[in-house]
Amino acid sequence: MHLTAPAILIAARPHGETAVIARLLTEESGVVAAYVAGGRGRQLRPVMIPGNVVQADIRAKSDSQLPFARLELVRSRGPWLSEPLSSAAIAWATALTAAALPERNPYPTLYAALGGLLDAICSADAARQWVEALAIYETLLLRELGYGGERPAIADLGQALEILDRQEPLIARYLLADTRADVLAARQLLRQRLARMIS
């Protein structure tokens, strides 16, 4: 395996003393897990933030071997980690994607949609401007994996929040049934912060 492509970093798990196992969403190869040597070191730590867009060079000697990856930062989400709503939304969107998608199955629509959602979160002046995109992304993810329906028509923020609430049981049942509860906890934290925004 040899893949060179832009990718969205959707998860980074520490491995050993200094390495990271990264999960990367690429347009043509889907989710790829790879070993990043020195991923917890001073140089690569700012790169290993879920939501970051990277240029990935991924290589493996065989399909059964965990690939090695070299990552170069293209776009950082780091500046938005200090914003409670933005950081919670980025954490939820990337955690959901990492937990729900099987490896090595291409989902070009989801790749483009996640990139658009993350850009919206990081460029909007207020959460009101990206909540609709989040609800649509969740719907799209459910649909692409065979559990959802049509794209919802969203008139306002209240309706977007209602759709998010309606989708939580579907996400928990179909997409996160076999995963740890902390993935859904990221969504609940985001929902609590969104509730404060309109109260």
UniProtKB/TrEMBL annotation:
DNA replication/recombination mediator RecO N-terminal domain span: 1-69
Highest taxon, organism lineage: Bacteria
Record Gene3D superfamilies: Nucleic acid-binding proteins, Recombination protein O, C-terminal domain
Gene Ontology BP term (one): double-strand break repair
Keyword terms: DNA damage, DNA recombination, DNA repair
Gene Ontology CC, one term: bacterial nucleoid
Alphabetized InterPro entries for the sequence: DNA_rep/recomb_RecO_N, NA-bd_OB-fold, RecO, RecO_C
Xref: PANTHER family: DNA REPAIR PROTEIN RECO
Family, per entry: Belongs to the RecO family.
Protein name, per record: DNA repair protein RecO
Organism: Erythrobacter aureus
